[in-house]
Amino acid sequence: MELYTYQDFTKHKSGLTFAAADQIYTELVGLVEVAGREVASDWESFLDACVTYAARRGRWLLLSAKQKGAIDDQRTSEHDNVILTLTIVRRQLARLDLPTDWFDKLALDPVQERKRLGDFACYVAYVYGVNAR
Q1: How far, in Å, CA of 33 to CA of 5, rounded?
Q2: Could you tell me the residue ranges of all domains in the chain?
Q3: pLDDT above 90 as % of the chain
């Protein structure tokens, strides 16, 4: 079994660091608070998608190649749902004339966007996990 640390992750130059994720998340939470009920339901859908995806992604390195193959389509679908629900939140905020530049910081570039949005989902799930104590 291979062991991993956060420092292993930070070696990926395009990975979303805790510091960057926290800055974006803090800004986004503030915007969601300002938007209030207009965005609440979509925000809850995003949070649920994050927790679901992060649980599967967190197990990924523990699985055999055969096990990964059996659930890869489901993991991809859960990742797609994270992206979809966050995109809906972004559109709702834009509709309310609230800033959406946080998304550009999060996505970084089209090549890394999908991976970084997955990283962000794991960060959001982490925040909710440690606050659930």
Answers
A1: 33
A2: 40-131
A3: 82
